[in-house]
Write a structure and sequence with these properties.
Helices cover 0% and strands 51% of the residues. By secondary structure, it is an all-beta fold.
Length: 123
């Protein structure tokens, strides 16, 4: 079992930055690939970024490449999403998720989810 708790969301102006954190419980955190997803009102939840269990490989959605970075610290059981140059269209609830195996972009492939943290970018 893995429990995930996101933090770091908030209100920021366009062009600003936020860093989201996802703290995981459980001794086996380091064996899980981690992903960040987001869901805007009335829209489906979509993949934003993912990192392998070792942190050695990352994936980013095209819409956030060059602006967002995902990383993890297995000693702290935490995964991060650094978001720079934020745009109003980045406004959404951001979720972290965990799965055994590699990084994939489909939500149904993830076994554990956090409760989400709201990110609002004003223009």
């Amino acid at each position: 079992q893995v429990q995930l708790v996101e933090s770091g969301g908030g209100l920021v102006q366009a062009g600003g930055s936020l860093r989201l954190s996802c703290a995981a419980s459980g001794r086996t955190f380091s064996s899980y690939a981690m992903g960040w997803f987001r869901q805007a009102p009335g829209k489906e939840r979509t993949f934003v970024a993912g990192v392998t269990w070792s942190g050695g490989s990352t994936s980013l959605a095209a819409s956030v490449k060059g602006r967002f970075t995902i990383s993890r610290d297995n000693a702290k059981n935490t995964v991060y999403l650094q978001m720079n140059s934020l745009k109003p269209e980045d406004t959404a609830v951001y979720y972290c998720a965990a799965r055994q195996g590699g990084v994939v972009v489909t939500t149904k492939e993830y076994d554990y989810w956090g409760q989400g943290t709201q990110v609002t970018v004003s223009s």
